[in-house]
Amino acid sequence: MNNFFTSLANKAHDFFFPTFDQxxxxxxxxxxxTLAFYSIIISSIVAAPINIYRDFVAGNMVIVVATTLxxxxxxxxxxxxxxxxxxxxxxxxxVMAVISLMVGLIVDFGGTxxxxxxxxxxxxxxxxxxxxxxxxxxxPVLFFGGFLxxxxxxxxxxxxxxxxxxxxxxxxxxxxxxxxxGVFSVLYQHIVVGSLYKAAYVDELTGLPNRRKVEQVLAQKxxxxxxxxxxxxxxxxxxxxxxxINSCQGSRFADEILARVGARLGELCGRDxxxxxxxxxxxxxxxxxTELAExxxxxxxxxxxxxxxxxxxGQAIALEAGLTITRFPNDCQDLETLLSNIQTGFARMREQHxxxxxxxxxxHHAEMERYSMIEELRQAIPRGEFSLVYQPKLRLDDGMMSGxxxxxxxxxxxxGNVPPSVFIPLAEESGLILDISRWVVLTGFAAIQSVQxxxxxxxxxxxxxxxxxxxxxxxxxxxxxxxACPINTSQVEFEITEGVLIDGNPVTQQTLxxxxxxxxxxxLDDFGTGYSSLSYLHQLRxxxxxxxxxxxxxxxxxxxxxxxxxxxxxxxxxxxxxxTAEGVETAFQQTYLSAxxxxxxxxxxxxxxxxxxxxxxxxKGNGRLRE
Length: 627
Prior knowledge:
Layout: H1 2-16, H2 27-58, H3 61-84, H4 87-107, H5 116-122, H6 127-151, H7 165-201, H8 211-228, E1 232-240, H9 243-249, H10 251-268, E2 274-279, E3 282-287, H11 292-307, E4 310-312, E5 315-317, E6 320-328, H12 335-348, E7 356-358, H13 361-378, H14 380-383, E8 386-395, E9 401-412, E10 416-418, H15 420-430, H16 433-453, E11 459-463, H17 466-469, H18 473-484, E12 492-497, H19 506-517, E13 521-527, H20 534-540, E14 544-547, H21 549-553, H22 563-574, E15 578-582, H23 587-596, E16 600-602, H24 612-620
Parallel strand pairs: 6-7, 9-11, 11-12, 12-13, 13-14, 14-15, 15-16
Antiparallel strand pairs: 1-3, 1-6, 2-3, 4-5, 8-9, 8-16, 9-10
């Protein structure tokens, strides 16, 4: 029952207090304006019929006609409030009503007894909200002037109190004072409202509308577009790499540049466009155009303006920017999604730097799925969704198993079995790779410890991310783990990529030094796909060189002499390194690699990735993967 009355009250509120399509007014002004309308409507409905009747009986037809027209226009305005919801039309009705009543009162000199003037003076307090700033200033002046002129002529009703010269003089004084106070009241209200509006809706730095105003304007445009079936577009302009200006030149310098960019965009856009500073280095342009060709042209123009160099304190500052566009209703149906589209477009500007790009619905869904997957990935360890599988590796000379590479797998309730090629890059990007790698090492060490206890002389490989090696806490983690789970470190091989030394991070070098000193083996994974520099190879001092599966796949009877594979094998042999070929799938590949002196092979030719139980069972056998 309470919900019913609450819902009923909300509907009644929305009906009697509509949201007017008026961008230059704040919600508070609109509410005050609506209340002012209702105060005049209610007082007019009560007083006007009584006065019309009295004046009709007294035979004052001029004031009867004026008051009747006034009442009709007021009621028309009331109807427009409820159903048309157009503030401009409502104000027009009230302005015409006020003028009608004012003319009637002046001509008839206040009605039968002259008291009609007092009704009019009482309206000065709300005229600012009802008929606007200019009207609220002019009406008191015109009314007082009209009263002065009309008082020069006779013809007053015999019953009018203004027949008494003293009373007429007193009313003249009262009317003059009321007019002056009315004008100053309107000026004061206008100044206060303007100050409040500026504080709430104007960006102090650029003088452009701010984020709050943008959201208000967009909400109004959405409502209008949904009602009339029209569309509009939002262009987002983001200054990129702006932090370097802030850090090198100082905040005052950066603020001045933002102010100038804002001024440029404001001058560039047409009178029907809305330009605002949405956030730090982000500007928005709202336009009624939805044609792609027009938007591209306008976007390039705005982008060129934003990127134009600015000379400040004798320095020419080159600016970098990107621009993205989303359209309503093509790309979305609500305000939140509309603004989200702009943010999505900014995220893509890394790929389309300095270009005008349009929002892509399919790409947005992919970004949302990616975001959701990262959130699921955060809970994967607590939920126990990770597992390890073992990709066996064998010696090519005798076919005996030499160990396995430990590979992580993720099975999620929402996304199912997610391949490492999908979730590992997400983990690296989001910083989750550190926790995931430690889980793999911890779980892997426990498994390796049980295998070593069974007496198997095998080497197990664990992949490490460059982020693991650059993490100062990783060495501490390994030290503590070796105490809690002692294993033969020579039977553990950490696989890394050659790019780990590219950035010259000293922490990475310290981590690699500890790994070697602790007796772990090092394998250089995916060799040949990165920098393949001899200097890096020398720095890493690896034990094993792994040939990427992409090169092995090219090895076939139709391509029996791949120069890259031969070069990598020759290089590794000259440096005294073991060589592991990844992705061996055919007998020809195996024969070729074995003949060239490749040490190990792993791939589907020998076995698919195995569970721990399957792997242990294989180890307990003869350890031979091929006969």
